[in-house]
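Purpose: get a first structural picture of the assembly so the mutagenesis plan has something to point at.
Setup: two entries, given in the order below. No constraints added.
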Amino acid sequence: MSTISSTAINWFFACKTTDVPHNGGVCIKYKDEQIALFYFSRSDTWYATQNLCPHRRQMALSRGMTGTHQGEPKVACPFHKKTFSLKDGRCLTDEHECSLTVYPVRLEDDRVYIGIQSGVEVGVPVTVEAL
Amino acid sequence: MKIVVIGNGMVGHKFCEKITQKLGINTARIVIFGEETLPAYDRVHLSEYFSGKTADDLFLAPAGWYVSQGITLHLGDPVHSIDRVNKTVTSLKGISETYDFLVMATGSAAFVPNIAGTDKKGVFIYRTIEDLELMKSYAPRTSRGAVIGGGLLGLEAAKALLDLGIADTSVIEFAPRLMPRQIDDKGSAVLQSKLQQLGLQVLTGKNTSAILGEDTITGLAFSDGTSLNADMLVISAGIKPRDELAAACGLETGPRGGIVVNDLLQTTDPFIYAIGECALYNNMIYGLVAPGYEMAEVAATHITETSRQDSSALKSFTGFDMSTKLKLIGVDVASFGDPFPGQGHSIVMEDSISGVYQRINVSQDGKYLLGGILIGNADAYNMLLQTCKNNMPLPANPADILLGPRNGSASAGAGVDALPDEAVICSCESITKAAICQAVTDGQETLDAVKKCTKAGTCCGGCTPMVKDLISATMKAQGKYIRNVVCEHFDYSRQELLDLIKVKSLRSFDEALDHYGHGEGCEICKPVVSSILASLWNDMILAKGNDTAQDSNDRYLANIQKGGTYSVVPRIPGGEITPEKLIIIGTIAKDYNLYTKITGGQRIDLFGAHLGDLPAIWEALIAAGFESGHAYGKALRTVKSCVGSTWCRFGLHDSVSYAIRIEERYRGLRAPHKIKSAVSGCIRECAEAQSKDFGIIATEKGWNLYVCGNGGSKPQHALLLAQDLDSETCIRYIDRFLMFYIKTADPLTRTATWLNKLEGGIEYLRNVVVNDSLGIAASLEAEMQSLVDNYKCEWKEVVESPELRKKFSHFINAPEEKDPTVKFETLRDQKKAADWK
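Result (structure tokens, whole complex):
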């Protein structure tokens, strides 16, 4: 894992906090790409991943059910219920499945920002360790 | 100590797993040389590479495993020579390594018969992922395929050609029948006709004399003067042990190939072992993975013990049962024990209608099972194999073990309880019944936990049903109440949770989690709690913040389909619809470019709707008098009907009117699983009511009520609950039946499965519903009535609420835009979803 300093991250405005349902996700359009944004109200935490489920390449993760597996936040794809960690994007139900790209999320008042590493196309795996 | 392993196939890999397990990581230095460029993969499931699996899916170890075990892996670099005097191997690239022990797991190569022209373009062998990739890139130019070899591998190769889209594929076998080594003439004939039904040509008794064509294959010539056109050929006529390296360094090899080994798997040099398909034990090559794994175990044990100078638990290889069960192109094929014994009796069951052939061989005295063959249906394989291997006595009438008990006598097979402790349940990993039961006793009480702990069922998976039975049986024997708690977030069964939520009058998932759960919930408990809430209160499911706790189809009140669009199903009660309404459905489908199809439940499904279009589509449907069909929910789906006495000359009662009444009564009713129903107007049963969760059939005197039937993958006929009922009583019984099911069933359990598990079965259920043995009939009826009174069309509520409508957009920050990745193709003048990638 590599640590990416905040200067290398380009933060874009995604939506208002009130646009996102509690304990669920929405899909954000960023340029020609799609990012799934999730809000866990009990722990007041935000996560963002690619919207594409790598299993059958469907744009569906934002519509998936969220939850935890032994404390680790996860989302289940609506198609075949493969689940992915929202912390590091790895697939929790199939160790051979590809991982999701995860993105850092930042709040300013009621505005939600998602961080894209500058110079890196959305969808290309980048692991972010420290935010 | 230093161990060099030659070969990184399944058996070589298994040896590394075993030796690191026994010695501990980093106790020995282990170096592997592999000829292929890929690390060890699952060759047994190689043909799945063409049905969608990738090389990644087939790898036996996760990336980084070898490093984590301290093993050096040289890929794409075969060993070139062995110097036994200096105990050194040298690879093709020039790497030299000394060894204390050398393990040869060189496997086998495809046997290519001596036919002129095997070097022509379009001729392939079927052995490695690389071979498969070559076939894959060649296949698009091909319209007629052929396979030489009608054994196990040949049929696998034929499946690969079918999977590559070459529909016109022929299998050529030299012997007069398919799979000559495993099954008998009649079995082969049944298999052959089954494969021919699936589109495969089968030519037996054919000796290929030449491969035709200039540089590229155009066909095959046979010794009987006939020929066959083909532009692609796969040779899969058997295997040839890779013993050339062993022979070159002076180890003894067999006359027809194979490195000679003793029962410790040592070659004629005690520091060199040979395991897997390259080893010749007792004049036999073992061409299956399970004996190869057993050899890996024996060699690893012996090396460990030799290095510790401890021979306490000496283990030896004593040959291996070659029983096998496979699915070849969708047809079950199994043989076990001795399929062709010289003496004794045979019991044969042949059913040429459904293509099933089963033969068991029984000892002269009729007491023991010697072996057998199963074609077309091998469900009984595991039990038969165990009965045979453990020398268990047969029932008094041995045919019962094949055909099941008849004439109402008691059950024949005694099930897993009767197996001895030493019975090997998983033969790939050689795991005994005792080991599995011990794991369960130690607290591994789920299939996944047992698989992880014992490795049983992790290779071919054939023993999984038996492992499951052993888990339940062991837990039951310990007097453990098998309590199906919902998931890690709720330590309650569904039934307990329903009672608790009712007592506390909880109305949302969050409240339920606060009171009775922990953590954040998950995709298992959220739909369960949401279903319970709906079954108790029938509130609008998207209200009170419950929308994200719904299963994702319920959250969008539509069924997600391939590509991410949704299907829309308006309710058409009883399947009756006016011409005006039909026209409106057609108009809406045209307006929104939807694919239309009549469903099995007598309604119309509209596919391919964008998420953002759903509210507008429903606004139009509702304006025309339609309402939600709840096709997306675990809820009442349809009440199918035949036309009944209004038109039919046989009809006894008006089945359509009754079906409509019932569908309107229970519409929107949410349950542990979906519920289907039907009403037939006479005994001819055109509405197929006996395949439904509850079905009603008209009689001269009233209605017969059947319950707990099922179609789908495990069809089951519904059972008669009560007969000759008047319309009102029938509905009261249905109220009680449905409410009792809703309150007591486990999540995602259909009524048929629920009844199968219900102690006392249909008799008990009849007592509860008809005789009110629990004294709850009145409250069940009252609870159902309150659900019926609370019904509202949830789509109508969404359409009328701007707040709810907002939730139906793909992009939250661009609500007007649709998902640009959605793609359609055209088929028979309508659209269809683009295929999965």
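The first helix of chain B runs from residue 10 to 23.
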